C-alpha cells in the first residue's frame, strides 16, 4: 500500500507526507544505519532532512535506529531466512539507484501483515508492523513482513525509479488516480511472486503466511479468475477503486461496474501484472 505525497516543485525537503496509514509521526526518529556512507539523516522537528557531505548522494536503505531491525530484513545479515531472490532483487534495486534515502520502520500503528510507502520529499519511509517472534522462515509474521517489504519496495521503485509512474500527488487528475490501481497491481504481483518462491512442492494452504497473502497468491496462480467477484484480486481492486480512484464521487462502483472497469481501463495493466508474476517466477 502506498501513501500519497504533496508534489512541490521547489524546496522538496519541506514536503509534508500525507499518509493515510500513518497515525503517529515517526519522522523524527534517528535513521542511523544506512547502507551507503554518503548519506546520513539528522532529525529536525518532525521532518527528515538529508545531510549531504558531498555532491553526489547515493540511494540507501535506512533503518529506524535499530541494528536489530536491520539485521532482520537485510539479506546479507539474515541469509539463512531471507532466501527469496525476488526480495533481494527489490532490495538491491533501491540501494543501487542514486537519490535520497528509503527508510524501513517497524511501526506499531501499521496493521499487522500490511505496510505503507510514503515519499515526503526528503526521504521515503516504508512502514511495517513490528515483528512478533523470531526472524526466521518458520514464523508467519516474518514471512508476511518479507513479502510486504517486497511489495512496498516496488512502490518505491515505481515512484522514484526510472520507470516512474505518476500516482502519488495529492491533487491528482483522473489519469493519476487510475495509476493507483496500476501500481498496486504491480506490487501485488511482486508480493505473490515472493510467496510463490516459498511454495516448493507444497500447497498454498501449507505456506506460513496470512490468509490474505495466500488468497492473492492463488489469484496469480489462477489468472483467468482474477476478474471474478469471489477472487481476492478482484475484491482488493474494487476496494482500491472505490477508496482511492473515486475520490469525491459518491457513486461507488458495483461489482459489475468494477468488472467493466478492469476489462476496459485496466486491461493492459492487468496483463502487465500477470507478466510480472510470470517473469519473476518462471511459470
Question: What tags apply to this protein structure?
Answer:
4-stranded mixed sheet, 283 residues, alpha/beta, 2 domains, 8 strands, two-stranded antiparallel sheet
In summary, what is this structure?
Helix content is 40%, strand content 11%.
Kindly state the percentage of residues in helix. 25-40%
Cα separation of the termini: 25 Å
Question: What value does the average pLDDT take?
Answer: 79
Percent of residues in β-strands: 5-15%
Tell me the major beta sheet.
Answer: 4 strands, mixed
- In which order are the strands of the major sheet placed? 5-6-8-7
Query: How many helix segments?
Result: 8
SSE pattern? EEEEEHHEEEHHHHHH
How many beta strands in the DSSP annotation? 8
The Cα radius of gyration reads: 18 Å
Helix-strand category: alpha/beta
Per-chain topology:
Blueprint: E1 4-5, E2 17-18, E3 40-44, E4 47-51, E5 61-63, H1 67-73, H2 85-95, E6 102-106, E7 115-119, E8 124-128, H3 140-160, H4 174-196, H5 211-221, H6 232-245, H7 255-264, H8 267-281
Structure description:
This is Large polyvalent protein associated domain-containing protein. The protein is α/β, with parallel strands linked by helices. It has two domains: 4-160, no CATH class; 174-281, no CATH class. Helix 3 (140-160) runs antiparallel to helix 4 (174-196), helix 4 crosses helix 5 (211-221) and helix 4 (174-196) runs antiparallel to helix 6 (232-245). Residues 6-34 and 36-58 have low confidence and may be disordered. The strands form three sheets. The chain has a four-stranded mixed sheet with strand order 5-6-8-7. A two-stranded antiparallel sheet has the order 1-2. The protein contains eight helices and eight strands; from the N terminus they run βββββααβββαααααα. The longest helix is centred in the middle third of the chain and has 23 residues, at 174-196.
Amino acid at each position: 500500500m502506498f501513501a500519497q505525497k504533496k508534489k512541490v516543485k521547489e524546496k522538496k525537503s519541506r514536503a509534508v507526507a500525507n499518509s493515510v496509514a500513518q497515525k503517529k509521526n515517526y519522522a523524527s526518529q534517528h535513521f542511523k544505519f544506512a547502507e551507503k556512507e554518503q548519506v546520513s539523516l539528522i532529525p529536525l522537528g518532525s521532518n527528515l532532512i538529508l545531510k549531504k557531505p558531498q555532491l553526489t548522494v547515493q540511494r540507501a536503505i535506512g533503518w529506524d535506529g535499530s541494528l536489530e531491525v536491520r539485521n532482520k530484513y537485510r539479506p546479507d545479515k539474515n541469509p539463512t531466512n531471507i532466501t527469496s531472490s525476488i526480495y533481494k532483487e527489490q532490495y538491491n534495486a533501491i540501494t543501487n539507484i542514486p537519490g535520497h534515502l528509503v527508510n524501513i520502520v517497524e511501526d506499531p500503528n501499521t496493521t499487522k501483515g500490511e505496510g505503507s510507502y510514503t515519499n515526503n520529499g526528503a526521504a521515503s519511509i516504508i512502514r511495517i508492523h513490528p515483528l512478533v517472534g523470531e526472524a526466521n522462515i518458520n514464523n508467519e509474521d516474518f514471512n508476511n513482513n518479507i513479502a510486504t517489504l517486497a511489495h512496498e519496495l516496488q512502490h518505491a521503485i515505481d515512484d522514484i525509479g526510472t520507470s516512474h509512474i505518476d500516482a502519488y500527488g495529492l491533487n491528482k487528475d483522473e489519469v493519476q488516480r487510475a495509476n493507483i490501481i496500476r501500481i498496486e497491481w504491480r506490487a501485488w504481483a511482486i508480493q505473490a511472486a515472493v510467496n510463490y518462491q516459498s511454495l516448493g512442492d507444497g500447497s498454498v494452504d501449507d505456506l506460513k503466511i496470512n490468509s490474505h497473502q495466500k488468497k492473492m497468491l492463488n489469484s496469480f496462480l489462477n489468472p483467468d479468475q482474477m476478474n471474478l467477484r469471489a477472487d481476492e484480486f478482484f475484491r482488493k481492486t474494487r476496494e482500491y477503486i472505490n477508496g482511492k480512484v473515486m475520490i469525491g464521487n459518491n457513486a461507488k462502483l458495483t461489482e459489475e461496474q468494477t468488472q467493466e472497469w478492469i476489462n476496459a481501463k485496466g486491461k493492459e495493466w492487468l496483463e502487465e501484472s500477470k507478466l510480472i508474476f510470470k517473469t519473476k517466477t518462471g511459470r
